[in-house]
Design brief:
The protein is α+β, with helices and mostly antiparallel strands. It has 17 helices and eight strands. It is found in: Membrane.
């Protein structure tokens, strides 16, 4: 190459009579132009060959991995390697008379080569990330965190390599010098390191998956986990807002994961109605006769009344006063009615706990809690089932001569409590 350049230079100066500087400039531009055309042809041929081969190979295979490589541009980036290497080899021949320019261009091309390698790896990692997310086994795993860690390491190595190239220092010596600053690096990347450790622990212990419903009051998060990254966890709340919380918060702070509920056979219903204490009383004979018309508790009242009557007779209880001996109460019978009603409800899971219980009395009255599990765990359906049960319970209260507590706005707070 150098002989051809000198021959052209001599022809321009001796044959055509051009000045030395002009002849040298034209010589360099001409050789550069010819080599640029050659590089463009090489790049075009290489790119067409690699991309065509990749597409043909991807169409013949069943796996989607090679299709994703094409999608993320890996073949196109690989096709740049050969032209860049050729250009790097050509620089000494084109600019051999300009050592400073030659050295600068070689350094620049090596820097470009480092960036090209990083972009190729990034394309492959993106392909791996998307491919694993299409796999059922890894769909709910924090793959993004691991990909980001690898990319972070690659960028650190790339910038360290670029600094070593620019400073003309051996790579090993450069990293030996860099090791002295490791404490500063640890401080700078503290959150990243904590996030990476948290991602590993979350993945190994299987505490949170993508798609889980979590609640973390500290950060105002209450919704579905969309993404687990190296530094943040993205949660879409039920009002469609997005909350980003630190990844390491999943191992340092308390939160609630509703996966146990979604994986179980039912979603819990746990709500109470408050019965006014003054409406609670013993049932008399005519009350029991009226309540026996309610089909759900007809058999219960008959058997229970016989049992109570037998006990009172055996113990010669004086029933002229109703409180003596054993008796039925309206709240007790109502509690039994709710038990039968909830157990017979078609939307309640019969294999899980069903319980109607009294909570400790309050200044407002006696709370009567319905505790059961809805078979349908979808939010809208769950709310409908729970409302259906309590609609019935609230409407049924008056049949047992009970009253629901509610504040009378016309009275003062003291008067409302006393009444």
């Amino acid at each position: 190459m150098n002989e051809y350049r000198r021959a052209i230079y001599n022809w321009l100066t001796d044959g055509l009579g051009w000045e030395n500087d002009v002849a040298e400039l034209v010589n360099i531009l001409g050789v550069g132009l010819v080599f640029t055309v050659i590089l463009f042809v090489v790049y075009w041929v290489t790119r067409r060959a690699i991309i065509t081969a990749f597409k043909a190979f991807s169409q013949r295979t069943e796996t989607q991995f090679d299709d994703l490589l094409v999608k993320h541009g890996a073949p196109r980036l690989v096709s740049l390697v050969i032209p860049l290497v050729l250009l790097n080899k050509a620089v000494p021949y084109i600019f051999f008379d300009y050592p400073i320019l030659e050295s600068g261009l070689e350094t620049f091309l090596w820097v470009l080569f480092v960036f090209l390698i990083v972009f190729i790896f990034r394309s492959v990692l993106r392909t791996i990330n998307e491919f694993l997310k299409l796999t059922v086994r890894f769909r709910d795993k924090p793959i993004d965190s691991y990909i980001q860690v690898i990319m972070l390491v690659l960028w650190v190595l790339a910038f360290a390599s670029i600094l070593a190239i620019v400073a003309n220092i051996e790579f090993i010596k450069f990293f030996t010098t860099l090791g002295a600053a490791s404490a500063i690096l640890l401080l700078i990347f503290k959150d990243t390191i904590l996030g990476f450790v948290a991602s590993i622990q979350v993945s190994i212990n299987d505490t949170v998956r993508i798609g889980d419903w979590i609640t973390m009051e500290k950060y105002g998060a209450d919704g579905e986990v969309l993404q687990i990254n190296l530094s943040t966890v993205m949660v879409q709340n039920f009002d469609n807002t997005i909350t980003n919380l630190p990844t390491y918060a999943l191992i340092s702070d308390a939160y609630k994961n509703w996966r146990g509920m979604t994986d179980s056979g039912g979603r819990r219903i746990k709500r109470a109605i408050i019965i006014k204490s003054k409406s609670i009383r013993y049932l008399e004979k005519n009350d029991i006769e009226q309540l026996q018309k309610i089909s759900l508790i007809e058999d219960y009242l008959k058997s229970r009344q016989e049992e109570i009557h037998k006990y009172n007779e055996q113990n010669e209880v004086d029933k002229s006063v109703l409180i003596n001996g054993r008796n039925l109460t309206n709240i007790g019978v109502f509690r039994k009615y709710l038990q039968e009603y909830v157990q017979g409800h078609s939307a309640i899971n019969k294999e899980m706990t069903i319980m109607i219980r009294q909570l400790p009395p309050t200044s407002q009255g006696m709370p009567l809690e319905i505790y059961a599990f809805s078979s349908d765990k979808r939010w809208a359906n769950y709310e409908y089932i729970m409302a259906d049960i309590f609609d019935h319970a609230l409407a049924a209260v008056r049949y047992f001569d009970l009253e629901i507590f509610e504040f009378d706005t016309s009275l003062t707070a003291v008067e409302a409590v006393s009444n």
